[in-house]
Amino acid sequence: MGPLMAQDLSSLVCVSNSDESPISGGESVGKCLLQSCKRAAAAGLMTLCAFFGAAHITRAQGTAVDEEFRQATEAMREQHLDEAARGFASVVAASPNFAEAYFNLGLVLEEQGKFEEATAKFQKALALKPRLRGANLFLGVAEYHLNQFDKAVAACRKETANYPTDANAWMWLGVVDLAKERPDEAAQALDKAAILAPDNVDILYHRGRAHLLISKESYARMFKEDPNSWRVHQVLAQADAEADRHEEAIAEYEAAIRLAPNQPGLHEELGTECRRAGKIEEAEAAFQREIEIDPHNILARYKLGTLEVERGDGAKGKALIELAKQQDPGLKEADYYLGRAELELGNDAAAIQALQRAVAKASDPEVIEQAWYQLGMAYRRAHRLQDAQQALATFQKLKEQEAERHLQKVEKRRSEQAAETAPTLGAPQKP
After folding, report:
1. Residue 410 located in a structural domain
2. Where are the alpha helices (DSSP H) in 61-200?
3. Dihedral, 376, 379, 385, 389 alpha carbons, nearest 10
């Protein structure tokens, strides 16, 4: 069945429209609005996120079927599943053409873990109303639980075809494709789901997992085809860099460069790791070599400029950053480094303007904090003492807030570690 997963589906509407099947006396049934979703997962299995809501009956009120349907729907909403199942079963017995009642009965059975019975009810609902919203989706979910992945894919595809803007249908199609060990197909479905619901954490999880599997498969094939390729060293270097193993990353980038000395991008990545490792001269040489290989590499030019600013060469740093900024006006934190360069050159007014832009637009909290400090220094040199006092007070406030956040993270980490190491009373022991 795969790892623990959970879902969070949007509201689902079952509408009885003009072609709705009649029930007793030719009277038509109205619509059932299934509104809220409950997340549930246990023991490594995905359980159903059922939709519970109130029924709105548009036909003549007061009949026994109406009342029974209303009571069953209320029981469903209150999670009184046995009562709801009995009620909907009674409704479909009295009204065998009522597609929505079969659908609701299927939802209840699915929530109870009776997936084979739920499948039969969803199939009956679809036989009566082939485009009933949600029926193919939940049919696919039930078939997924029964490990009938081919059938589940077919059902989810029908739902996406009928309702192409339903993010949850695309998500479930991707989940089933993952279960079938088809990450490429899963990624396509989950990419569509993410476009429709970009903040859905379940979609983001499954999408990330699909792309991770694709990445692992691609790298495994690359290692198999040519284990001595410079690309292999590049991948290893990137993995080391992401894990903050900077010395190891440097060694891998240097190995890649020995195999492909003129490959664009490699020297820039090497320079970045050298800078993080405190090897400033090596970083400067790597960035300069990158610009020689690829004069259009804006990031290499910008990184070299910021490095020169940090080394105290304001003139060289300013020239490099301004040239990079001409090519890419959106370079992050450029104003901060330009402000520092202007300070180095004694251009207080220009420094103040650049640093004011930095505190307004910078995205990195550490850069914003430092920009306020540098702005305070620039105000002080320009004899704007009140502005300097305010800027430095802001810097101090941000610094204290950062210290508090760091302390909270440390305390949280300690608490988590204590919870992990604490003995668990009554827990079953592994043999």
Report:
1. no
2. 64-77, 81-94, 99-111, 115-128, 135-145, 149-162, 167-179, 183-196
3. -20
Decide if 73 contacts 53 (C-beta within 8 A).
yes
Q: Among candidates 325, 326, 317, which has minimal Cα distance to 347? A: 317
Counted residue by residue, the chain has a size of: 431
Percent of the chain surpassing pLDDT 90: 68
Residue ranges making up the domain that contains 246: 226-295
Per-residue pLDDT tens digits for 225-269: 998 899 999 999 998 999 999 999 999 999 999 999 999 999 999
What is the C-alpha to C-alpha distance for residues 290 and 299, in angstroms, rounded to an integer?
A: 10
Q: How far apart are alpha carbons 93 and 82 in whole angstroms?
A: 17
Query: Taking the complete model, does pTM exceed 0.70, yes or no?
Result: no
What's the CATH code of the domain at 268? 1.25.40.10
**Number of separate domains in the chain:** 3
* CA–CA gap between residue 260 and residue 254 (Å, rounded): 10
> One-letter amino acid identity for 27?
E
